[in-house]
Amino acid sequence: MKKVIYLLLTIALVACDDKLDISNPNRQTTSDFWQTESQAIAGCNAIYATLIIDGTYTRMTPALSDGRGDDVTGDSPWPDLVQVSNFTIPTTSGPVQWIWADYYRVIWRANQVLENTVSIDMDEALKNRILGQAHFLRGLSYFKLANFYKIVPLVLATPKTPEDYYPTTATEEELWNQIYADFQQAKDLLPASYSNVTGLDAGQIGRATQGAATGMLGKSYLYRKEWQKAADQFKELIDGGRYSLVANYRDNFTDANENNSESLFEVQFADPSQVGGTVMNWGGDPAANWKQASAQACTYSMDGRGYSDFLPTQWIYNEYKLERTKDDKSDPRLLATIASYEPDDNSTTVYGDAWPYAPDKIYPRKYTNDGKAGYANEYDLNSGINYRVLRYADILLMYAEALNELKQTTAAYPYIQQVRDRANLPDLATTKPGMTQDEMRDQIAHERALEFAIEGQRINDIIRWGWFYDANKLAMLKTHDADFNLWSPGNEYLPIPQTELDVNKKLSPNPAN
Q1: What is the Cα–Cα distance from 66 to 399, expressed in whole angstroms?
Q2: What SS3 state is found at 72?
Q3: What is the model's pLDDT at position 120?
Q4: Comparing C-alpha atoms, which of 245, 147, 225, 238 is closest to residue 441?
Q5: How far is CA 265 from the centre of its chain?
Q6: What is the rounded CA–CA span in Å between residue 98 and residue 440?
Q7: Phi and psi of 133, rounded to 5°?
Q8: pTM (predicted TM-score)
């Protein structure tokens, strides 16, 4: 059974006015909270708690990432989810605002931990681990904000003056340099695991580790085309031998084999039957009766089993069919990712019942409880499936990409093949030997599409590869997903929320505004 560390607590971090010496005995202030090891670890846990609310990983981070890729299309009565999928999302969209607000909530809590933990008299190793986690989670938050909005303010301290509440927008260079710095500091401070540490966090699963920080540092370098720096981080992980691909691809997206050898970092969710809770953890101040559940399963699940707000595109389904396995079967990632009627592959049921839809209908299966005993549908919003933020398969394919960009195309083959081997696909060096750098780029794009479909990765890949501004690639995207026909320059990003622009006059609009 997994250990869920996301204690749903609220720390009232408010300032006291000397002129009005009245305090609420039920809520602590910053001046009397940060005193002990247990309070420091509680403050750290409070950062993690903000990863399981609506704007982060409970629903909107997956939804507003997947919807914009060519592997997923909107299929919702909720206009925001369709509009984000076809790149017409307005600046007044609620989900766009929630993502912005909730990642800054993570940052706000991380900044409090970084500022206040350093002065606590406590075990130095535990202190370093807490600071390392705060750096990691702040770096992850800015990584997500940079990919959602392109340019955002850098807030690296809690507000001390009224002026501090109105930060200016950072440049892309400043933003990404801070992301590198946070992940590097996390890497320097975090342990490889918590199995051999002593202290309040001993043996706990789900906390950020040195491997997670190394992987995200490398991924950040890759996104900015710092190929050698990225390759160095990935090689360190590969040579370290701590991580490996799990045999069953589907194990990466259910609650049956979480925090496994392939996982570098995942957001911890839990069914209320494990940890309690009766009220959905959408946001606001956490309470004791909050669930720690994910809403992704219900949001993505098929008609009659969930909200069916998103569908796989026919293109990604067809992409899985391009190549047969060594024993002449369908790529096993197809049915782990997409629920479809495949009698030849013994897939004719959903949630244990006979396939009730037209034979050509397709739905998401990844991150749903389809196939789990006792689940007839997802409407109770009780899914405990962890969200995998970074997998070892990503490290392998990113390393191959970095090698190819460093003109070491031949050296990239074995790392791609490790991912293909799990899918039992033929040896790429035999089927496509001697690829040029450009050919390998296209091959890596194909491999990433199949490996990471419906994982919120595709839109980031499309943006960083420059496909929106390449006429041929954009034309290709339009054939993959008709939503791309409505794209206009700049709208590959989410707009800065209008409410933020209205309140903070020092905030700059981004290309989507």
Answers
A1: 23
A2: strand
A3: 96
A4: 225
A5: 9
A6: 38
A7: -65, -40
A8: 0.95
